């Protein structure tokens, strides 16, 4: 454990808030997913690729109380685990595009991914769900994939609380940033943003995302 970290419930590490270098984050984001994987997914099933892309909206958890001078901002760090193929898929397309199999405009899908305290599904603990819907709403570049996501906490200190996130996916590679627009329970009136990056290399039917969420609690 690094200096300044504290071990929380379910083994989640509570870290002091540190601002993200967005320039470095965005410039290095596409390196974590091989181009051949994206090409293969697009060729075999562009709709499954859309499910993957939408997962880049989401962020990691449990709360570290922010340090002095950050105006109450909380940093939440976690991992989202998504399965996009097979009988246990957690991200599926429910309505294909009326424009054809290779089109994304008009696609609608749903997500019910796992939120865990680590990248390894075998050694990490389940702390919540990453649930939401997405739709292809752009005819031209940027992609214009719109999403509405809820972080539903089912274990730990914030069990029963939720965070709501809205926003578009403006790139198919690199980091995705979206707005936190509210919450319930411990997160009432929450506002902030989320940055998500792929963690390691995907398998043929699954992928893991490292999530960083920065939240300001207005009611405190």
TrEMBL record:
Source organism of the structure: Triticum aestivum (Wheat)
Matches recorded under PANTHER family: NUCLEOPORIN-RELATED
Protein's name according to its UniProt entry: Dirigent protein
Summary of subunit composition and partner proteins: Homodimer.
Keyword vocabulary terms for this entry: Apoplast, Membrane, Secreted, Transmembrane, Transmembrane helix
One Gene Ontology biological process: phenylpropanoid biosynthetic process
One GO term describing the cellular component: apoplast
Main localisation: secreted
Location in or out of the cell: Secreted, Extracellular space, Apoplast
Entry's transmembrane regions: 47-64
Entry's family note: Belongs to the plant dirigent protein family.
Described function: Dirigent proteins impart stereoselectivity on the phenoxy radical-coupling reaction, yielding optically active lignans from two molecules of coniferyl alcohol in the biosynthesis of lignans, flavonolignans, and alkaloids and thus plays a central role in plant secondary metabolism.
Keyword NADP carried by entry: no
């Amino acid at each position: 454990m690094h200096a300044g970290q504290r071990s929380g419930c379910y083994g989640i590490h509570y870290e002091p808030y540190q601002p993200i270098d967005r320039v470095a984050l965005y410039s290095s984001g596409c390196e974590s997913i091989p181009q051949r994987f994206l090409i293969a997914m697009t060729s075999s099933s562009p709709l499954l690729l859309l499910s993957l892309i939408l997962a880049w909206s989401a962020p990691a958890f449990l709360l570290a109380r922010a340090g002095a001078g950050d105006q109450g901002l909380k940093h939440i760090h976690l991992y989202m685990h998504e399965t996009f193929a097979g009988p246990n898929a957690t991200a599926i397309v429910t309505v294909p595009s009326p424009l054809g199999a290779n089109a994304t405009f008009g696609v609608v899908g749903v997500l019910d991914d796992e939120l865990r305290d680590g990248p390894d599904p075998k050694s990490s603990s389940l702390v919540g769900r990453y649930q939401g819907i997405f739709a292809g709403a752009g005819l031209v570049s940027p992609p214009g994939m719109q999403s509405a996501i809820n972080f539903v906490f089912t274990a730990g200190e914030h069990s029963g609380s939720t965070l709501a996130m809205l926003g578009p996916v403006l790139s198919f590679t690199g980091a995705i940033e979206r707005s936190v627009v509210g919450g319930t329970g411990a997160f009432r009136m929450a506002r902030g943003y989320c940055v998500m990056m792929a963690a390691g290399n995907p398998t043929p039917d699954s992928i893991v995302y490292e999530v960083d969420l920065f939240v300001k609690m207005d009611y405190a």
